[in-house]
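Lab notebook, design round three. We kept the backbone fixed and only want residue identities now. Task for the bench partner: fill in a sequence for the structure below.
Input structure tokens:
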């Protein structure tokens, strides 16, 4: 299941049998006072692991824990490599991975990576590489709010400090986007939270994780079964 756990000859054998490589893409960035910096990376890794449980042809690469997180500047612990570096890294990683694997899947759980991932995938496809991307989406709070808190309570409850969970800016994302583009998250909330995590629970997180897994499995099924014309 995990690429890094295998010796090279075993990877070559799996790849020759048609295995696809899933790469979790996350971030190291603030998620309020109650969630760990690894939240996006944890979610992406969990989804890739669950995909591998559903499909024996999937190998999971080590997660990439850095991305474009400039919108979270000003919050301690946030480490961003920016849009250009993220795009370049994914292009070079994709080229390298596709020397071994016929198919490459990026699973990106950090919204700030979206533009860079889209450009990188387009470039790799233009070079005739079979690459796809899945970006989990949910209804409700966009960052460090109820959905992400519920997911972490389901995945790593020991890492969640619910006694420190407080609401942030609860306006819809469409209303916040112009402000976020101009001044980042710090411009709209001192808590680093977009939404309200205080009512989150593990059962809700497990249900959401099941739904996202089903979406991912369907995405890969449709991608791998598509007929090239």
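Proposed sequence:
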């Amino acid at each position: 299941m995990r690429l890094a756990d295998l010796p090279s000859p075993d990877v070559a054998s799996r790849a020759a049998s048609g295995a696809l490589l899933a790469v979790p893409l996350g971030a190291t960035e603030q998620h309020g006072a109650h969630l760990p910096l690894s939240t996006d990376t944890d979610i992406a890794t969990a989804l890739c692991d669950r995909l591998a449980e559903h499909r024996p042809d999937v190998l999971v690469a080590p997660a990439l824990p850095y991305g474009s997180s400039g919108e979270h500047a000003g919050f301690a612990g946030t480490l961003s490599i920016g849009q250009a570096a993220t795009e370049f890294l994914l292009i070079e990683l994709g080229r390298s991975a596709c020397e071994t694997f016929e198919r490459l899947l990026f699973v990106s759980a950090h919204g700030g990576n979206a533009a860079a991932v889209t450009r990188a995938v387009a470039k790799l496809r233009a070079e005739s590489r079979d690459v796809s991307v899945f970006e989990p989406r949910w209804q409700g709070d966009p960052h460090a709010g109820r959905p992400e808190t519920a997911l972490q309570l389901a995945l790593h409850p020991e890492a969640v400090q619910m006694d420190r969970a407080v609401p942030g800016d609860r306006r819809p994302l469409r209303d916040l986007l112009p402000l976020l583009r101009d001044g980042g998250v710090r411009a709209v909330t001192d808590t680093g939270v977009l939404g309200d995590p205080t009512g989150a629970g593990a059962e809700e997180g497990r249900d959401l994780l099941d739904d996202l897994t089903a979406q991912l499995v369907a995405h890969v099924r449709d991608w791998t079964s598509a007929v090239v014309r």
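Keep this in mind before ordering anything: The longest strand covers residues 20-25.
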